[in-house]
Amino acid sequence: KDAHLAALRIRASLEGPTVSLAKARAEGRRSAKGPNEAAAIGRMLREAGLARTSARYLSRAVRGWPEDVQIRVELAESLEADGQCDAALDCVAACCARNPEFAVRRAPVLRMQLLARMGRFRDCLAEIAQIAVPSSVIHQTQLRIALAMGNLGLAEAAVRARLSDPAVSRGQKAHFSISLDGAQLTELRFLRQFEAMGEVFDPLEFVSA
Fold first, then answer.
1. Residue 162 in contact with residue 136, Cβ under 8 Å?
2. Is the CB of residue 36 less than 8 Å from the CB of residue 70?
3. Angle, in degrees to the nearest 10, between helices 107-117 and 69-81
4. What is the secondary structure of 45-97 as a DSSP string?
């Protein structure tokens, strides 16, 4: 069982998820033999661009292994990929009810991703505030939300946190100002400067000039 799962993952990394699953079916593997394999198959379906098929498959797998956390995580991510974010949030909530450790360690990050995609920025920031040890990805998400909200103070704080993170490479730190996030932060700074001087910034003026 473990050997087959390992082979499935190796094939997916070398040949892509579509080929890996096709070969598994050709070998007579029509169903998963355990929760780890079911989660892996669901993930490969999603990575092959079949998010809705993945969600249906994982929904059945949840009924077979209701206590398995990873299947529910994969289901939530497949529902998100299919645009079913409310259903994905419900899936995360159901997993939290069954697994207190998941509720503390993994659920806030998943909810953050879902709420950001749904445009529920304030709710997303509330989730970020509950994350005990934010990663560079969390700081980046916080920055992008702050930029979308036009909140310069929050954006500046997120940048300071991201650039002080040891996980962020020197190259990333050195080139932040010319990245898309850096450019948008610069634009927001200029906008606030215009406003402080009593100027009205009209982006259409630059387009028509």
1. yes
2. yes
3. 10
4. HHHTT-HHHHHHHHHHHHHHSTT-HHHHHHHHHHHHHTT-HHHHHHHHHHHHH
CB proximity list for 165: less than 8 A, separation 6 or greater: 135, 136, 139
With beta carbons less than 8 A apart as the criterion, state whether 138 and 157 touch: no
- Taking only the tens of pLDDT, the chain with its 209 residues reads 455 556 555 655 656 666 666 655 555 454 567 888 889 888 888 988 889 989 999 999 999 999 899 999 999 999 999 999 999 999 999 999 988 888 888 888 899 989 998 999 999 999 888 887 778 888 889 999 999 999 999 999 999 988 888 888 889 888 998 899 999 999 999 888 888 887 766 656 655 54
Structure tokens at 19: 């080929």
**Residue with the two structure tokens 């169903």:** 31
Cβ(167)–Cβ(146) under 8 Å?
no
Give the list of residues 6+ apart from residue 80 with CB closer than 8 angstroms, or none.
Answer: 88, 113, 114, 117
Contacts of 198 (CB under 8 A, 6+ apart): none
The amino acid that residue 30 corresponds to is R
Please report where in the chains the tokens 């709420």 appear, as a residue.
115
